[in-house]
Amino acid sequence: MFVENNLKVDPDNQGWVLGWAVVRDKPWHLVGIYATEDGAKSKRSELNGEYEVRYGSHRLGSDDFMSVGLS
Known about the structure:
Layout: E1 2-3, E2 8-9, E3 16-24, E4 29-34, H1 37-44, E5 52-59, E6 65-67
Parallel strand pairs: 1-4
Antiparallel strand pairs: 2-3, 3-4, 3-5, 5-6
């Protein structure tokens, strides 16, 4: 799985970073975490239609990802 360098640290979850994920729900597949929405959308365009781009928090060293709302 790809994790872009220099992602913002998630202040609410130690060991997690914030970014734009390319994910598929069923079966779960986290392709990567990107610093920008455009970067994630570019990667999604290379994949089939089952993948989505979501903003959220990723636990480093795992495939854990939680979507978070943008305000």
